[in-house]
Design brief:
Distance between the termini: 36 Å
Oligomer: single chain
Largest sheet: 4 strands, parallel
Radius of gyration: 17 Å
Helix content: 25-40%
Number of domains: 2
Strand order of the largest sheet: 3-2-1-4
Amino acid sequence: MRVLIQFTHGLGDAVQLSSVLLHMRRSRPHWEVDVAALPGKHSALRGLCRANLILGSEDSTAYDRVFRLEWGECEMAYRGWPSTKVERCLLDVFGIAPDAELCHYELKVGPEADARAAEYLGTIAAPLGDGRFKAVLLHYQGNTAQD
């Protein structure tokens, strides 16, 4: 079955979506999942779905099912797994019980992006010699849903 997920949320949410995709890979192996996300956010899903597309470039008529994820906050406490947007989506949208082994985020960073990040970090922080830098990144406020 060909499935399209339309995802209109920010980069942090896209990284969280990785856990949903890991669950889908295991629980729905017969699904061919493509994700259409906002430009720049779509690349966070590389390697986690069949195709990561820029939202608006997809042909939704080519799919058997289309899910436009609302991605709301979890407003209840679950027993046995985290109470996050991921688990709410798994349960409410896809009917998949969370698996503790898959309740983590995954981000596949390519060598080019890794080199660009290291180059930038080298301009603002001292390298520690093991590929890490003496720096902290705070993402205190998103820009996709400012309200």
